[in-house]
Design brief:
single chain; alpha/beta; Spore Coat Polysaccharide Biosynthesis Protein SpsA, Chain A; 9-stranded mixed β-sheet; globular
Length: 329
């Protein structure tokens, strides 16, 4: 019988985590084991799990990290534990995800019939509506990079890939990318491509991992398998206006998050094509700097922040403490 381990990475979202674990417990086909990777939460996550009886459940391993390793480090540790545990498939998700009750059952139906080395659930929002975001889709081709980089995207959303919502609802849709919210990787794939790049901390760790996957095989999205993503971090953005335009902007106090996306995206572009990728990374950062000059407050500090992230991408420097030091000293 095929064995499946679920890997859930959490940080300071204990209530959402319990909802995620309840969703896994209520599966018609339950995971054979659940690995909870706690990134050194400070909100009493362990005590809360104990009070809700989660830690006493059979088939659940709680792993508390000594420090916050970010999503990338958490998925590295969780997938490594699941792989070393001998499981055939590894189903990964954030703590703000909640799989619908048939999600794993529908994925498992395609483990043997699909030629893909990975499958993924259809991503939905908190209300169950299909989420046509960059969480599912195709990699942007180099010919289209400039057009998509102006929008800050490296993924063509699934709605465009599949042409229509009706095609998305088909049983299977071949995709290049699924975020670490409901992606499920075969043991065969992990044996070849290894684990996520933990140095990324957050942002583009799933993109980089799926880039490796595409070199050896396919990923398929199973539309009947649905997972809700509640995205509890949307409050880090605010809307700002200039010259009649409006843009969603990262709040200054949460700007440290932007460092990782800029550094990691620019680094990835260089790995793909050193010369042209460096140029594309420069275009991306230049666009971000232009937006800072046009829309943002704290312009000098923001510009310094972006330039530092870009320079670190050029040198391959992965100092994950640096962003908060730059912001807060």
């Amino acid at each position: 019988m095929t064995s499946v381990a679920a890997v859930v990475v959490t940080f300071n979202r204990k209530q959402l985590l319990v909802e995620c674990l309840d969703g896994l417990r209520d599966q018609t086909r339950r995971p054979d084991h659940i690995f909870v990777i706690d990134n050194a939460s400070t909100d009493g996550t362990r005590e809360y799990l104990e009070s809700r009886g989660c830690l006493g459940r059979a088939g659940l391993t709680y792993m508390r990290m000594a420090k916050n390793l970010g999503g990338a480090g958490g998925f590295y540790e969780g997938m490594k534990a699941a792989f070393e545990g001998g499981f055939d498939w590894i189903w990964v998700m954030d703590d703000d995800a909640e799989p619908e009750c048939e999600a794993l059952y529908e994925l498992e139906r395609h483990f043997d019939t699909s030629t893909a080395l990975a499958v993924a659930s259809l991503l939905c929002d908190a209300d169950g509506a299909t989420n046509f975001s960059s969480h599912r889709g195709a990699f942007v081709s180099f010919g289209d990079f400039l057009r998509y980089l102006l929008k800050g995207k490296l993924i063509v959303p699934i709605q465009i890939v599949a042409v229509s919502a009706d095609q998305v609802r088909q049983q299977r849709v071949e995709i290049d990318h699924a975020s670490f919210v409901g992606a499920c990787y075969s043991r065969e794939a992990v044996e070849i491509i290894g684990f996520p790049k933990k140095e990324f901390f957050i942002h583009y760790d799933d993109f980089e991992y799926n880039k490796r996957l595409k070199k050896i095989g396919k990923m398929t999205m199973i539309s009947a398998s649905k997972i809700r993503h509640k995205e509890a971090n949307k409050t880090t953005f605010e809307v700002r206006s200039a010259l009649g335009w409006q843009r969603g902007r990262q709040k200054f106090g949460a700007l440290w998050i932007k460092y990782y996306s800029v550094r990691n995206a620019a680094w990835l572009l260089r790995q793909e094509r050193p010369i042209f990728g460096t140029f594309l990374g420069f275009c991306m950062v230049s666009k971000l700097m232009f937006d800072v000059l046009l829309f943002d407050t704290e312009k000098k500090r923001r510009l310094r922040f972006l330039s530092s992230a870009y320079l670190d991408s050029l040198t391959g420097t992965f100092d994950n403490d640096k962003p908060k030091i730059l912001l807060y000293g």
